Amino acid sequence: MAGISISGLISGSFDWQSVVDQLIQIDTAPITRLQTQAATNNNKLTSFTALKTDLTSLQTAVQGLNSTTLFNQRTATSSASGSNWTVAAAEGATTGSFTIAVSQLATAAQRQGAAGISAALHDTNDVSGLTLANLSTATPVTAGTFSIDGHAIDLALTDSLQDVFDKISTATGGNVTASYDSATDRISLVSGNGDDIILGAGNDSSNFLSAMKLANAPVGAGSSLSSTGSLGSVALNATLASSRLRGALSPDANGDGSFTINGVAIAYNVDTDTLSSVLQRINTSGAGVTAGYDAANDRFVLTNTATGDIGIGGNEVSGGLLDALGLTGGATLQRGQNALFSVNNGVTVSSTSNTLSSALLGVTGLTVTANSVSSQTVTVAPDTSSMQGAIETFIKAYNTLQSDVAAATATSVGPDGKVTTSTLSGNLEVQSWARQLRSLAFGSISGLDGAINNLDKMGIGFASLGAPLSILDQSKLSSALKTSPSEVGSFFNTANTGFAAKFSTYIGKLVDPFNGSLVTQTTTLNKQNSDIDVQIATLNKRLADERTRLTNAFLAMQTAQSQAQSQQATLTNMFAPKSSTS
User: Fold this and answer.
1) Where are the beta strands (DSSP E) in 113-214?
2) How many CA atoms lie within 13 A of 307 on its CB side?
3) Which in 196, 210, 275, 383 has the greatest CB count within 10 A?
4) Torsion sign (Cα): 528, 531, 535, 537
5) Contact, 106 vs 336, CB < 8 A?
6) Would the pTM of this model clear 0.85, i.e. be above it?
Protein backbone atom coordinates (compact mmCIF):
# COMPACT_ATOMS: atom_id res chain seq x y z
CA MET A 1 0.00 0.00 0.00
CA ALA A 2 3.04 2.31 -0.42
CA GLY A 3 2.21 5.69 -1.84
CA ILE A 4 -1.38 5.72 -0.52
CA SER A 5 -2.07 8.63 1.83
CA ILE A 6 -4.24 7.98 4.83
CA SER A 7 -4.43 11.49 6.19
CA GLY A 8 -7.93 12.47 7.05
CA LEU A 9 -8.88 8.95 8.10
CA ILE A 10 -10.41 10.12 11.34
CA SER A 11 -11.86 13.27 9.93
CA GLY A 12 -13.65 11.24 7.27
CA SER A 13 -12.04 13.01 4.31
CA PHE A 14 -10.17 9.84 3.35
CA ASP A 15 -12.34 7.33 1.32
CA TRP A 16 -10.61 4.13 2.31
CA GLN A 17 -13.42 1.96 0.77
CA SER A 18 -12.46 3.27 -2.68
CA VAL A 19 -8.88 2.39 -1.96
CA VAL A 20 -9.93 -1.19 -1.19
CA ASP A 21 -11.93 -1.33 -4.45
CA GLN A 22 -8.93 -0.06 -6.43
CA LEU A 23 -6.62 -2.60 -4.88
CA ILE A 24 -9.06 -5.45 -5.62
CA GLN A 25 -9.62 -4.19 -9.18
CA ILE A 26 -5.88 -4.30 -9.82
CA ASP A 27 -5.81 -7.91 -8.68
CA THR A 28 -8.70 -8.94 -11.03
CA ALA A 29 -6.53 -8.66 -14.14
CA PRO A 30 -5.76 -12.43 -14.16
CA ILE A 31 -9.50 -13.17 -14.00
CA THR A 32 -10.17 -10.88 -16.98
CA ARG A 33 -7.48 -12.67 -18.97
CA LEU A 34 -9.03 -16.05 -18.11
CA GLN A 35 -12.53 -14.84 -19.07
CA THR A 36 -11.19 -13.61 -22.40
CA GLN A 37 -9.63 -17.01 -23.01
CA ALA A 38 -12.94 -18.76 -22.17
CA ALA A 39 -14.84 -16.47 -24.57
CA THR A 40 -12.33 -17.29 -27.30
CA ASN A 41 -12.77 -20.99 -26.61
CA ASN A 42 -16.55 -20.64 -26.75
CA ASN A 43 -16.30 -18.94 -30.15
CA LYS A 44 -14.18 -21.84 -31.34
CA LEU A 45 -16.74 -24.33 -30.02
CA THR A 46 -19.48 -22.46 -31.90
CA SER A 47 -17.44 -22.74 -35.08
CA PHE A 48 -16.87 -26.44 -34.52
CA THR A 49 -20.61 -26.94 -33.98
CA ALA A 50 -21.31 -25.30 -37.35
CA LEU A 51 -18.61 -27.40 -39.04
CA LYS A 52 -20.05 -30.57 -37.50
CA THR A 53 -23.43 -29.68 -39.03
CA ASP A 54 -21.72 -29.19 -42.40
CA LEU A 55 -19.85 -32.50 -42.11
CA THR A 56 -23.06 -34.32 -41.19
CA SER A 57 -24.88 -32.82 -44.18
CA LEU A 58 -22.03 -33.82 -46.47
CA GLN A 59 -22.02 -37.32 -45.01
CA THR A 60 -25.78 -37.61 -45.67
CA ALA A 61 -25.30 -36.40 -49.26
CA VAL A 62 -22.51 -38.93 -49.76
CA GLN A 63 -24.76 -41.71 -48.45
CA GLY A 64 -27.33 -40.65 -51.05
CA LEU A 65 -24.76 -41.14 -53.81
CA ASN A 66 -23.85 -44.50 -52.30
CA SER A 67 -27.39 -45.85 -52.88
CA THR A 68 -27.41 -49.18 -54.69
CA THR A 69 -30.68 -48.27 -56.39
CA LEU A 70 -30.16 -44.61 -57.37
CA PHE A 71 -28.43 -45.25 -60.68
CA ASN A 72 -30.78 -48.12 -61.55
CA GLN A 73 -33.92 -45.99 -61.26
CA ARG A 74 -36.04 -45.75 -64.41
CA THR A 75 -38.83 -43.51 -65.68
CA ALA A 76 -41.64 -44.55 -68.00
CA THR A 77 -43.56 -42.06 -70.16
CA SER A 78 -46.24 -42.37 -72.81
CA SER A 79 -46.06 -40.60 -76.14
CA ALA A 80 -49.79 -39.85 -76.07
CA SER A 81 -50.64 -36.35 -74.86
CA GLY A 82 -52.98 -36.51 -71.86
CA SER A 83 -52.77 -40.30 -71.79
CA ASN A 84 -54.97 -42.00 -69.21
CA TRP A 85 -52.71 -45.04 -69.18
CA THR A 86 -50.60 -45.65 -66.11
CA VAL A 87 -47.03 -46.64 -66.94
CA ALA A 88 -44.38 -47.64 -64.41
CA ALA A 89 -40.82 -48.85 -64.67
CA ALA A 90 -39.17 -50.77 -61.85
CA GLU A 91 -35.53 -50.48 -60.81
CA GLY A 92 -33.29 -51.82 -63.54
CA ALA A 93 -36.08 -51.98 -66.15
CA THR A 94 -35.03 -52.47 -69.77
CA THR A 95 -34.59 -49.09 -71.44
CA GLY A 96 -36.01 -48.29 -74.86
CA SER A 97 -39.25 -47.38 -76.63
CA PHE A 98 -42.10 -49.87 -76.99
CA THR A 99 -45.28 -49.44 -79.03
CA ILE A 100 -48.19 -51.06 -77.21
CA ALA A 101 -51.46 -51.40 -79.14
CA VAL A 102 -54.53 -52.32 -77.06
CA SER A 103 -57.41 -53.53 -79.23
CA GLN A 104 -59.72 -54.64 -76.41
CA LEU A 105 -60.00 -53.81 -72.73
CA ALA A 106 -60.67 -56.42 -70.09
CA THR A 107 -64.11 -56.28 -68.47
CA ALA A 108 -65.60 -58.05 -65.47
CA ALA A 109 -68.17 -60.84 -65.76
CA GLN A 110 -71.65 -60.33 -64.30
CA ARG A 111 -74.20 -62.78 -63.01
CA GLN A 112 -77.47 -60.97 -63.68
CA GLY A 113 -80.38 -62.21 -61.64
CA ALA A 114 -83.88 -62.66 -63.00
CA ALA A 115 -85.84 -59.42 -63.30
CA GLY A 116 -89.03 -58.70 -61.36
CA ILE A 117 -88.07 -60.46 -58.15
CA SER A 118 -90.05 -58.03 -55.96
CA ALA A 119 -93.63 -58.51 -54.86
CA ALA A 120 -96.20 -56.48 -56.83
CA LEU A 121 -97.47 -53.14 -55.58
CA HIS A 122 -100.76 -54.82 -54.74
CA ASP A 123 -102.19 -58.32 -54.92
CA THR A 124 -105.37 -57.15 -56.71
CA ASN A 125 -106.22 -54.62 -59.40
CA ASP A 126 -108.08 -52.46 -56.88
CA VAL A 127 -105.61 -49.75 -55.82
CA SER A 128 -108.02 -47.45 -54.06
CA GLY A 129 -106.35 -48.30 -50.76
CA LEU A 130 -102.77 -47.60 -51.91
CA THR A 131 -101.65 -44.07 -51.01
CA LEU A 132 -98.78 -42.54 -52.91
CA ALA A 133 -96.79 -42.00 -49.71
CA ASN A 134 -96.79 -45.75 -49.02
CA LEU A 135 -96.12 -47.14 -52.50
CA SER A 136 -93.28 -49.66 -52.48
CA THR A 137 -91.72 -48.38 -55.71
CA ALA A 138 -87.97 -48.17 -56.26
CA THR A 139 -88.25 -44.37 -56.42
CA PRO A 140 -90.62 -42.62 -53.97
CA VAL A 141 -93.28 -40.46 -55.63
CA THR A 142 -93.05 -36.72 -55.03
CA ALA A 143 -96.03 -34.38 -54.77
CA GLY A 144 -96.68 -31.77 -57.48
CA THR A 145 -97.95 -31.80 -61.04
CA PHE A 146 -97.34 -33.99 -64.08
CA SER A 147 -98.79 -33.72 -67.58
CA ILE A 148 -100.62 -36.01 -70.01
CA ASP A 149 -101.57 -34.69 -73.47
CA GLY A 150 -100.80 -31.19 -72.24
CA HIS A 151 -103.14 -31.42 -69.25
CA ALA A 152 -101.64 -30.76 -65.83
CA ILE A 153 -102.59 -33.20 -63.10
CA ASP A 154 -102.04 -32.16 -59.53
CA LEU A 155 -101.42 -34.81 -56.90
CA ALA A 156 -100.71 -35.03 -53.19
CA LEU A 157 -98.98 -37.83 -51.32
CA THR A 158 -102.21 -38.51 -49.48
CA ASP A 159 -103.87 -39.45 -52.79
CA SER A 160 -104.46 -43.11 -53.51
CA LEU A 161 -103.28 -44.59 -56.78
CA GLN A 162 -106.92 -44.81 -57.82
CA ASP A 163 -107.32 -41.09 -57.02
CA VAL A 164 -104.54 -40.36 -59.49
CA PHE A 165 -106.21 -42.54 -62.15
CA ASP A 166 -109.44 -40.59 -61.63
CA LYS A 167 -107.58 -37.25 -61.92
CA ILE A 168 -106.03 -38.39 -65.22
CA SER A 169 -109.47 -39.18 -66.61
CA THR A 170 -110.93 -35.90 -65.41
CA ALA A 171 -108.04 -33.80 -66.73
CA THR A 172 -108.22 -35.39 -70.21
CA GLY A 173 -112.00 -35.24 -70.42
CA GLY A 174 -112.24 -39.01 -70.13
CA ASN A 175 -110.06 -39.60 -73.18
CA VAL A 176 -107.17 -41.19 -71.29
CA THR A 177 -107.89 -43.87 -68.75
CA ALA A 178 -105.45 -45.52 -66.38
CA SER A 179 -105.53 -48.91 -64.68
CA TYR A 180 -103.30 -51.25 -62.68
CA ASP A 181 -102.70 -54.94 -63.50
CA SER A 182 -101.56 -56.90 -60.44
CA ALA A 183 -100.57 -59.87 -62.60
CA THR A 184 -97.91 -57.86 -64.47
CA ASP A 185 -97.45 -55.22 -61.74
CA ARG A 186 -97.77 -52.46 -64.34
CA ILE A 187 -99.90 -49.39 -65.01
CA SER A 188 -101.55 -48.99 -68.42
CA LEU A 189 -102.75 -45.80 -70.13
CA VAL A 190 -105.24 -46.03 -73.00
CA SER A 191 -106.34 -43.24 -75.36
CA GLY A 192 -110.03 -43.40 -76.29
CA ASN A 193 -109.59 -41.58 -79.62
CA GLY A 194 -106.65 -43.68 -80.75
CA ASP A 195 -104.24 -40.75 -80.81
CA ASP A 196 -100.72 -40.94 -79.39
CA ILE A 197 -100.56 -40.27 -75.67
CA ILE A 198 -97.99 -37.56 -74.95
CA LEU A 199 -96.49 -37.69 -71.48
CA GLY A 200 -94.74 -34.91 -69.54
CA ALA A 201 -94.10 -31.19 -69.78
CA GLY A 202 -91.13 -28.95 -69.09
CA ASN A 203 -92.73 -27.52 -65.97
CA ASP A 204 -93.72 -30.81 -64.32
CA SER A 205 -92.86 -30.84 -60.61
CA SER A 206 -93.80 -34.42 -59.70
CA ASN A 207 -91.83 -37.51 -60.72
CA PHE A 208 -94.98 -39.67 -60.90
CA LEU A 209 -94.49 -40.71 -64.54
CA SER A 210 -90.86 -41.83 -64.10
CA ALA A 211 -91.61 -43.50 -60.76
CA MET A 212 -94.35 -45.49 -62.53
CA LYS A 213 -91.91 -46.28 -65.38
CA LEU A 214 -94.17 -44.61 -67.93
CA ALA A 215 -92.49 -43.16 -71.02
CA ASN A 216 -93.55 -41.93 -74.46
CA ALA A 217 -93.82 -44.52 -77.21
CA PRO A 218 -92.63 -44.03 -80.83
CA VAL A 219 -94.83 -41.84 -83.03
CA GLY A 220 -97.86 -43.74 -84.21
CA ALA A 221 -97.64 -46.39 -81.50
CA GLY A 222 -98.60 -44.43 -78.44
CA SER A 223 -102.38 -44.78 -78.12
CA SER A 224 -101.72 -47.36 -75.42
CA LEU A 225 -98.82 -47.20 -72.95
CA SER A 226 -97.69 -49.45 -70.11
CA SER A 227 -95.00 -49.33 -67.45
CA THR A 228 -91.71 -50.53 -68.91
CA GLY A 229 -91.15 -52.82 -65.92
CA SER A 230 -92.78 -54.13 -62.81
CA LEU A 231 -93.36 -51.41 -60.24
CA GLY A 232 -92.86 -53.19 -56.93
CA SER A 233 -89.47 -52.93 -55.28
CA VAL A 234 -87.78 -54.78 -52.45
CA ALA A 235 -87.26 -53.14 -49.07
CA LEU A 236 -83.47 -53.23 -48.73
CA ASN A 237 -83.42 -52.14 -45.09
CA ALA A 238 -86.29 -54.27 -43.79
CA THR A 239 -85.65 -57.74 -42.39
CA LEU A 240 -85.50 -60.49 -44.99
CA ALA A 241 -88.86 -61.79 -43.77
CA SER A 242 -90.39 -58.37 -44.59
CA SER A 243 -88.26 -57.44 -47.58
CA ARG A 244 -91.09 -57.87 -50.14
CA LEU A 245 -89.32 -60.53 -52.19
CA ARG A 246 -91.71 -62.28 -54.58
CA GLY A 247 -90.15 -65.70 -53.93
CA ALA A 248 -90.86 -67.54 -50.69
CA LEU A 249 -88.12 -68.12 -48.12
CA SER A 250 -87.79 -71.43 -46.30
CA PRO A 251 -85.34 -71.02 -43.42
CA ASP A 252 -85.00 -73.51 -40.57
CA ALA A 253 -86.89 -73.19 -37.32
CA ASN A 254 -84.48 -70.53 -36.10
CA GLY A 255 -84.83 -68.45 -39.27
CA ASP A 256 -81.35 -69.40 -40.53
CA GLY A 257 -80.26 -70.18 -44.07
CA SER A 258 -77.15 -70.03 -46.27
CA PHE A 259 -75.86 -70.08 -49.83
CA THR A 260 -72.45 -70.05 -51.51
CA ILE A 261 -70.86 -67.65 -53.99
CA ASN A 262 -67.79 -69.06 -55.72
CA GLY A 263 -67.64 -71.65 -52.97
CA VAL A 264 -67.71 -69.09 -50.13
CA ALA A 265 -70.55 -69.66 -47.64
CA ILE A 266 -72.85 -66.72 -46.79
CA ALA A 267 -75.10 -67.27 -43.77
CA TYR A 268 -78.14 -65.20 -42.85
CA ASN A 269 -81.14 -65.03 -40.56
CA VAL A 270 -84.48 -63.89 -42.02
CA ASP A 271 -85.57 -62.24 -38.76
CA THR A 272 -82.43 -60.19 -38.06
CA ASP A 273 -80.66 -59.66 -41.38
CA THR A 274 -81.69 -57.25 -44.12
CA LEU A 275 -81.02 -57.41 -47.83
CA SER A 276 -78.50 -54.59 -47.34
CA SER A 277 -76.60 -56.50 -44.68
CA VAL A 278 -76.55 -59.66 -46.83
CA LEU A 279 -75.18 -57.67 -49.78
CA GLN A 280 -72.52 -56.18 -47.52
CA ARG A 281 -71.64 -59.64 -46.24
CA ILE A 282 -71.14 -60.87 -49.80
CA ASN A 283 -69.00 -57.84 -50.69
CA THR A 284 -66.70 -58.23 -47.69
CA SER A 285 -66.33 -61.99 -48.05
CA GLY A 286 -63.64 -63.73 -50.02
CA ALA A 287 -66.02 -64.55 -52.87
CA GLY A 288 -64.37 -62.03 -55.17
CA VAL A 289 -67.62 -60.39 -56.29
CA THR A 290 -69.57 -57.20 -55.68
CA ALA A 291 -73.30 -57.64 -55.11
CA GLY A 292 -75.83 -54.90 -55.85
CA TYR A 293 -79.50 -54.23 -56.57
CA ASP A 294 -80.55 -52.93 -60.01
CA ALA A 295 -83.73 -50.99 -59.16
CA ALA A 296 -84.49 -50.16 -62.81
CA ASN A 297 -84.81 -53.84 -63.72
CA ASP A 298 -85.76 -55.05 -60.24
CA ARG A 299 -82.95 -57.60 -60.08
CA PHE A 300 -79.80 -58.41 -58.17
CA VAL A 301 -76.42 -58.51 -59.90
CA LEU A 302 -73.11 -60.11 -58.97
CA THR A 303 -70.02 -58.57 -60.61
CA ASN A 304 -66.54 -60.08 -60.44
CA THR A 305 -64.01 -57.85 -58.71
CA ALA A 306 -61.41 -59.19 -61.13
CA THR A 307 -61.66 -58.57 -64.86
CA GLY A 308 -61.40 -61.18 -67.58
CA ASP A 309 -63.41 -64.09 -68.96
CA ILE A 310 -63.86 -65.90 -65.65
CA GLY A 311 -67.10 -67.26 -64.25
CA ILE A 312 -69.27 -66.61 -61.19
CA GLY A 313 -70.82 -69.53 -59.35
CA GLY A 314 -73.76 -69.41 -56.95
CA ASN A 315 -75.48 -72.32 -55.17
CA GLU A 316 -78.41 -72.48 -52.80
CA VAL A 317 -77.73 -74.42 -49.60
CA SER A 318 -80.82 -73.82 -47.46
CA GLY A 319 -83.43 -71.16 -46.88
CA GLY A 320 -84.19 -70.26 -50.50
CA LEU A 321 -82.78 -66.72 -50.43
CA LEU A 322 -80.50 -67.09 -53.47
CA ASP A 323 -83.49 -68.43 -55.44
CA ALA A 324 -85.67 -65.56 -54.24
CA LEU A 325 -82.96 -63.12 -55.37
CA GLY A 326 -83.17 -64.64 -58.85
CA LEU A 327 -79.50 -65.63 -58.80
CA THR A 328 -79.89 -69.35 -59.47
CA GLY A 329 -81.99 -70.86 -62.27
CA GLY A 330 -83.22 -67.57 -63.73
CA ALA A 331 -79.81 -65.87 -63.72
CA THR A 332 -77.71 -65.26 -66.82
CA LEU A 333 -73.94 -64.92 -67.02
CA GLN A 334 -72.65 -61.98 -68.97
CA ARG A 335 -69.15 -63.11 -69.63
CA GLY A 336 -66.23 -60.80 -69.06
CA GLN A 337 -63.66 -60.28 -71.76
CA ASN A 338 -59.87 -60.35 -71.71
CA ALA A 339 -57.66 -57.47 -72.77
CA LEU A 340 -56.02 -57.95 -76.17
CA PHE A 341 -52.80 -56.17 -77.07
CA SER A 342 -49.57 -56.38 -79.00
CA VAL A 343 -46.06 -54.99 -78.49
CA ASN A 344 -44.06 -53.51 -81.38
CA ASN A 345 -46.53 -55.00 -83.92
CA GLY A 346 -45.95 -58.48 -82.57
CA VAL A 347 -48.51 -61.23 -81.97
CA THR A 348 -51.73 -60.42 -80.13
CA VAL A 349 -51.49 -61.32 -76.43
CA SER A 350 -54.43 -61.88 -74.05
CA SER A 351 -54.60 -60.65 -70.45
CA THR A 352 -57.39 -61.10 -67.92
CA SER A 353 -56.39 -57.72 -66.47
CA ASN A 354 -55.96 -54.27 -67.97
CA THR A 355 -52.73 -54.08 -65.99
CA LEU A 356 -50.26 -55.61 -68.40
CA SER A 357 -47.37 -57.21 -66.54
CA SER A 358 -43.73 -57.12 -67.60
CA ALA A 359 -43.92 -60.86 -68.28
CA LEU A 360 -46.77 -60.41 -70.77
CA LEU A 361 -45.21 -57.31 -72.30
CA GLY A 362 -41.86 -59.03 -72.62
CA VAL A 363 -40.09 -55.96 -71.22
CA THR A 364 -38.28 -56.44 -67.92
CA GLY A 365 -39.55 -54.10 -65.21
CA LEU A 366 -42.27 -52.36 -67.30
CA THR A 367 -45.92 -52.38 -66.20
CA VAL A 368 -48.75 -50.70 -68.11
CA THR A 369 -52.34 -50.21 -66.99
CA ALA A 370 -54.45 -49.44 -70.06
CA ASN A 371 -57.71 -47.52 -69.62
CA SER A 372 -58.58 -47.06 -73.27
CA VAL A 373 -58.35 -48.83 -76.60
CA SER A 374 -55.45 -47.13 -78.35
CA SER A 375 -51.85 -47.47 -79.46
CA GLN A 376 -49.19 -45.64 -77.44
CA THR A 377 -45.41 -45.64 -77.42
CA VAL A 378 -43.97 -46.05 -73.93
CA THR A 379 -40.37 -44.98 -73.38
CA VAL A 380 -38.31 -46.37 -70.50
CA ALA A 381 -35.23 -44.31 -69.65
CA PRO A 382 -32.80 -43.80 -66.74
CA ASP A 383 -34.19 -41.48 -64.06
CA THR A 384 -31.61 -38.77 -64.70
CA SER A 385 -33.54 -36.24 -62.61
CA SER A 386 -33.13 -38.25 -59.39
CA MET A 387 -29.48 -38.98 -60.20
CA GLN A 388 -28.60 -35.34 -60.89
CA GLY A 389 -30.57 -34.26 -57.82
CA ALA A 390 -28.38 -36.46 -55.61
CA ILE A 391 -25.21 -35.15 -57.29
CA GLU A 392 -26.31 -31.52 -56.85
CA THR A 393 -27.09 -32.18 -53.17
CA PHE A 394 -23.53 -33.47 -52.72
CA ILE A 395 -22.02 -30.47 -54.52
CA LYS A 396 -24.00 -28.03 -52.37
CA ALA A 397 -23.01 -29.77 -49.12
CA TYR A 398 -19.35 -29.97 -50.22
CA ASN A 399 -19.19 -26.27 -51.10
CA THR A 400 -20.92 -25.22 -47.87
CA LEU A 401 -18.33 -27.08 -45.78
CA GLN A 402 -15.38 -25.71 -47.75
CA SER A 403 -16.75 -22.16 -47.52
CA ASP A 404 -17.31 -22.40 -43.76
CA VAL A 405 -13.84 -23.90 -43.16
CA ALA A 406 -12.27 -21.07 -45.17
CA ALA A 407 -14.22 -18.42 -43.23
CA ALA A 408 -13.40 -19.97 -39.84
CA THR A 409 -9.65 -20.25 -40.52
CA ALA A 410 -9.12 -17.04 -42.53
CA THR A 411 -6.32 -14.59 -41.74
CA SER A 412 -5.95 -11.27 -43.54
CA VAL A 413 -3.65 -8.23 -43.41
CA GLY A 414 -5.16 -4.81 -43.94
CA PRO A 415 -3.58 -1.82 -45.73
CA ASP A 416 -2.40 -0.59 -42.36
CA GLY A 417 -0.60 -3.84 -41.74
CA LYS A 418 -3.10 -4.92 -39.10
CA VAL A 419 -3.73 -8.67 -39.02
CA THR A 420 -7.35 -9.83 -38.78
CA THR A 421 -7.98 -13.40 -37.67
CA SER A 422 -11.03 -15.68 -37.44
CA THR A 423 -12.10 -18.05 -34.68
CA LEU A 424 -10.00 -20.97 -35.94
CA SER A 425 -7.13 -19.09 -37.57
CA GLY A 426 -3.93 -21.05 -37.20
CA ASN A 427 -5.76 -24.37 -36.70
CA LEU A 428 -3.76 -26.42 -39.17
CA GLU A 429 -5.81 -29.55 -38.54
CA VAL A 430 -9.06 -27.92 -39.63
CA GLN A 431 -7.33 -26.45 -42.67
CA SER A 432 -6.16 -29.96 -43.56
CA TRP A 433 -9.81 -31.11 -43.69
CA ALA A 434 -10.46 -28.80 -46.62
CA ARG A 435 -7.29 -29.88 -48.44
CA GLN A 436 -8.03 -33.58 -48.00
CA LEU A 437 -11.66 -33.27 -49.14
CA ARG A 438 -10.57 -31.27 -52.17
CA SER A 439 -8.02 -33.96 -52.98
CA LEU A 440 -10.72 -36.62 -52.75
CA ALA A 441 -12.96 -34.61 -55.06
CA PHE A 442 -10.14 -34.22 -57.60
CA GLY A 443 -9.08 -37.85 -57.38
CA SER A 444 -9.75 -40.72 -59.78
CA ILE A 445 -11.14 -44.12 -58.85
CA SER A 446 -9.04 -47.04 -60.02
CA GLY A 447 -10.19 -50.51 -60.95
CA LEU A 448 -13.41 -49.51 -62.74
CA ASP A 449 -14.50 -51.21 -65.96
CA GLY A 450 -16.01 -48.09 -67.54
CA ALA A 451 -14.44 -44.88 -68.76
CA ILE A 452 -16.00 -42.75 -66.02
CA ASN A 453 -13.43 -42.73 -63.20
CA ASN A 454 -13.52 -39.12 -61.97
CA LEU A 455 -15.88 -36.16 -61.71
CA ASP A 456 -14.33 -34.44 -64.70
CA LYS A 457 -15.58 -37.25 -66.97
CA MET A 458 -19.10 -36.14 -65.99
CA GLY A 459 -18.47 -32.42 -66.52
CA ILE A 460 -18.06 -31.68 -62.79
CA GLY A 461 -15.04 -29.84 -61.40
CA PHE A 462 -13.47 -26.57 -60.25
CA ALA A 463 -13.50 -23.64 -62.64
CA SER A 464 -10.29 -22.32 -61.06
CA LEU A 465 -8.09 -22.79 -58.03
CA GLY A 466 -10.15 -21.98 -54.97
CA ALA A 467 -13.44 -21.93 -56.92
CA PRO A 468 -16.37 -24.00 -55.64
CA LEU A 469 -17.18 -27.40 -57.06
CA SER A 470 -19.77 -27.09 -59.83
CA ILE A 471 -21.30 -28.65 -62.93
CA LEU A 472 -19.10 -27.14 -65.63
CA ASP A 473 -20.64 -29.01 -68.56
CA GLN A 474 -24.34 -29.89 -68.17
CA SER A 475 -24.54 -31.66 -71.52
CA LYS A 476 -21.63 -33.90 -70.54
CA LEU A 477 -23.30 -34.81 -67.26
CA SER A 478 -26.69 -35.43 -68.90
CA SER A 479 -25.09 -37.69 -71.48
CA ALA A 480 -23.27 -39.71 -68.82
CA LEU A 481 -26.40 -40.18 -66.73
CA LYS A 482 -28.55 -41.08 -69.74
CA THR A 483 -26.22 -43.39 -71.65
CA SER A 484 -23.93 -44.76 -68.94
CA PRO A 485 -25.86 -44.81 -65.63
CA SER A 486 -24.27 -48.09 -64.56
CA GLU A 487 -20.76 -46.65 -65.06
CA VAL A 488 -21.70 -43.55 -63.08
CA GLY A 489 -23.13 -45.81 -60.39
CA SER A 490 -19.92 -47.87 -60.23
CA PHE A 491 -17.86 -44.68 -59.87
CA PHE A 492 -19.93 -43.43 -56.96
CA ASN A 493 -20.87 -46.58 -55.07
CA THR A 494 -18.30 -49.31 -55.62
CA ALA A 495 -17.84 -50.79 -52.15
CA ASN A 496 -14.75 -49.62 -50.21
CA THR A 497 -13.02 -47.98 -53.19
CA GLY A 498 -15.76 -45.90 -54.82
CA PHE A 499 -16.03 -42.10 -54.64
CA ALA A 500 -18.75 -42.19 -51.96
CA ALA A 501 -16.91 -44.84 -49.92
CA LYS A 502 -13.71 -42.75 -49.79
CA PHE A 503 -15.60 -39.60 -48.76
CA SER A 504 -17.63 -41.51 -46.21
CA THR A 505 -14.53 -43.10 -44.68
CA TYR A 506 -12.73 -39.78 -44.32
CA ILE A 507 -15.72 -37.89 -42.92
CA GLY A 508 -16.36 -40.79 -40.55
CA LYS A 509 -12.88 -40.32 -39.07
CA LEU A 510 -13.57 -36.63 -38.50
CA VAL A 511 -16.96 -37.06 -36.80
CA ASP A 512 -16.25 -40.30 -34.95
CA PRO A 513 -17.89 -39.75 -31.53
CA PHE A 514 -14.96 -41.33 -29.68
CA ASN A 515 -11.72 -40.61 -31.55
CA GLY A 516 -12.69 -38.20 -34.31
CA SER A 517 -10.69 -35.04 -34.88
CA LEU A 518 -13.77 -32.93 -34.29
CA VAL A 519 -14.50 -34.56 -30.94
CA THR A 520 -10.84 -34.39 -29.87
CA GLN A 521 -10.66 -30.66 -30.45
CA THR A 522 -13.98 -29.82 -28.84
CA THR A 523 -13.12 -32.03 -25.87
CA THR A 524 -9.85 -30.14 -25.39
CA LEU A 525 -11.63 -26.78 -25.54
CA ASN A 526 -14.32 -27.87 -23.10
CA LYS A 527 -11.64 -29.13 -20.68
CA GLN A 528 -9.78 -25.84 -20.94
CA ASN A 529 -12.98 -23.98 -20.11
CA SER A 530 -13.59 -26.25 -17.13
CA ASP A 531 -10.06 -25.55 -15.85
CA ILE A 532 -10.59 -21.83 -16.40
CA ASP A 533 -13.80 -21.96 -14.37
CA VAL A 534 -11.87 -23.56 -11.48
CA GLN A 535 -9.10 -20.95 -11.70
CA ILE A 536 -11.57 -18.08 -11.77
CA ALA A 537 -13.39 -19.49 -8.76
CA THR A 538 -10.08 -19.82 -6.88
CA LEU A 539 -9.04 -16.26 -7.73
CA ASN A 540 -12.44 -14.89 -6.75
CA LYS A 541 -12.07 -16.63 -3.38
CA ARG A 542 -8.65 -15.05 -2.89
CA LEU A 543 -9.96 -11.61 -3.81
CA ALA A 544 -12.83 -11.97 -1.39
CA ASP A 545 -10.38 -12.90 1.38
CA GLU A 546 -8.11 -9.96 0.43
CA ARG A 547 -11.08 -7.54 0.53
CA THR A 548 -11.97 -8.79 3.99
CA ARG A 549 -8.34 -8.43 5.22
CA LEU A 550 -7.99 -4.89 3.86
CA THR A 551 -11.33 -3.81 5.21
CA ASN A 552 -10.50 -5.15 8.66
CA ALA A 553 -7.07 -3.43 8.58
CA PHE A 554 -8.54 -0.04 7.74
CA LEU A 555 -11.23 -0.46 10.36
CA ALA A 556 -8.56 -1.34 12.97
CA MET A 557 -6.47 1.70 11.95
CA GLN A 558 -9.51 3.88 12.21
CA THR A 559 -10.24 2.55 15.69
CA ALA A 560 -6.62 3.03 16.83
CA GLN A 561 -6.45 6.58 15.57
CA SER A 562 -9.77 7.37 17.17
CA GLN A 563 -8.47 6.14 20.51
CA ALA A 564 -5.22 8.12 20.14
CA GLN A 565 -7.14 11.25 19.31
CA SER A 566 -9.29 10.76 22.40
CA GLN A 567 -6.24 10.31 24.61
CA GLN A 568 -4.61 13.40 23.11
CA ALA A 569 -7.67 15.44 23.88
CA THR A 570 -7.66 14.25 27.48
CA LEU A 571 -4.00 15.15 27.98
CA THR A 572 -4.53 18.52 26.39
CA ASN A 573 -7.34 19.24 28.78
CA MET A 574 -5.26 18.11 31.78
CA PHE A 575 -2.27 20.38 31.07
CA ALA A 576 -4.04 23.33 29.64
CA PRO A 577 -3.51 26.68 31.69
CA LYS A 578 -6.24 27.37 34.25
CA SER A 579 -7.93 30.72 33.97
CA SER A 580 -7.92 32.79 37.30
CA THR A 581 -11.07 34.15 38.77
CA SER A 582 -11.23 37.62 40.31
Assistant:
1) 144-148, 151-155, 176-181, 186-191
2) 18
3) 275
4) positive
5) yes
6) no
